Amino acid sequence: MIYDIILTTLINGSTWALLAIGFSLIFGVARIVNIAHTAFYMVAAYCIFYGTYRLGVHPGLAVLMAIVLVMVLGLICYKLFIEPIREHEAAVLIATIALALVFQELVLLIFTGDFRTVPALIAGYLEISGVKIAYQQLLTIAAAGVILAGVWTFLAKTRLGLAIRATAQDREVANLMGMNEARVAMLTLVISVALAALTGAVVLPLSVLNPHMWMGPLIMMMAVVVLGGLGSMKGSFVGAYLLALSEALVVFLIPKGAFLRESVALSIMILVLLLRPEGLFGVAFEEER
Amino acid sequence: MGLLGFYLRKLVTIFKGEIFVLPSRIVVFVFVVVLLLFPVLIDDPYLLRILTLASIFAIFAASWDLLSGFTGQMNFGHALFFGVSCYTAALLNLHFHIPPWGTIPLGALAAVLAGLIIGIPCLRLRGTYLALTTLAFPIILMGIVFALPDLTGGELGLSGLERLAKSRVAAFYINVILMIALVATMWKITDSKTGIIFHAIREDEVAVRASGINTTRYKLLAFCLSGFFAGISGGLYAHYMRIAGPSTLEVSMSFQVVIWSVFGGIVTIWGPVGAVFILFPLLEFFRFWPEGRLLMFAFVILLILLYMPGGLLHWIRDKIESECPRCKIRNIATRKTCRICSAEMH
Global pTM? Predict the structure, then answer.
């Protein structure tokens, strides 16, 4: 039981942390609330499914293809539908909801609504004191850790990362310092979408695919982002594992807990917000509060 | 007879002076008349059902605009009000056998209570934080609904509610007349002094507070008012569909109302109402290709937003009407001079 709880926490937490970081990146830089973020994650999942089953390519190659495809897709969507209306925040919001719906319906048309699965990259399992841990689960956790570390280094060490952080802090000043704000926003969108696709690739073998799979993670991702503080990577990280732990505890320890898992996680989020309106690690900017 | 003639002439003058001078007012007038005469002209149960549901959702969309459009408190969990009222009405009706005219106002009161409960923690939040937090409330409630299947019927919901009215046409008239009355009330509220304060809170809350206005109280008032109107639409929905299910609390329900409002144009009240009456029948119209129905719907929204990011109805109004530069009165776009102050237009 304890192993189960730890494992579920780690896997769900990693998923949400990855999704939340991508989501808060694009929000911080371009002030776009991208509801379609998890829809990209779903599209990546289906791309991998298509690659491995219909085309019969190696799963690793399929993952690479999916990421590139989703990045291109994200770029096209941004250029076509988001950029022309960026100054109307409400319109952007609806546009992303509509985009998510478009993806959902397209996937539904192409792949039908059947539930599908993808094979694990590494088969087999490990046994620790009677608990079976599939290698895929370990791989997922390890990969999530590597990706998180990679994003962290990217934001902290590279010039583009610096530009992204600067733009997130103050768009106008960043522009004055010679960073092309529109370019940074575009690149950030591509990076955040690629993160969503990577998440899809990593988590996919452990979950079931269906065209509505973007809704669940969307809600938890938003909860994580709000709990941790918008734009704070550390906050997303801590928030994700905190919510995942609470969910795992509710599911495994309370009878009928599966119904209440989201309720409890979201209630925790609201309780934290009552005490700290800017989230756990959020920085309250003057204009936003 | 003379008196009747006098009133008739007065009515004609009012129509000529107030309604027929502006195309948007003519459109609203024609819309109301057609809606009221609809069952007399066409007796099609299917169309009647679409229009009845559209008027229920029109109240719902307008109530979102009152809170999120006017006061700027982005509410992503508006389905909470709808669902709370739905379930309250259903429980009262099934267990205590209170007729619809009692359950709907009580359901609305429950929604007001919900507005107070979520309004108080949300007062400290702003903008995107508020939007993402409010999204959580209906989902929390949905978890509770699923966890207590004995009381709430779980996934199946509560069915077998009393009908709103004996006949289909009577139900249609109840819904449509209530819709017109409530939307007019909301429009009046936004036009009143309170409405101006709502506007001001959206524009600059600090400035409003500096002017000695208790913004907390007004924001809570906005939550309660919006909850009340959304609650009435929820109760009407429960009694019209005769079922209160968890689908009323879903995320898509909350998103739907945002889509309607932004599509029509926020901060108008009439925008969301018009958008519901356009989009709701449109979704039905797309039934010729059932699989692609939602896809086409989403594409229509994307395309309209691309060219009219301020909302469809707003865009149309700005095309057919223009504002006098001197006295800020709206005129039909074809006029050379203002109809009130005879200043040159442009």
Answer: 0.89
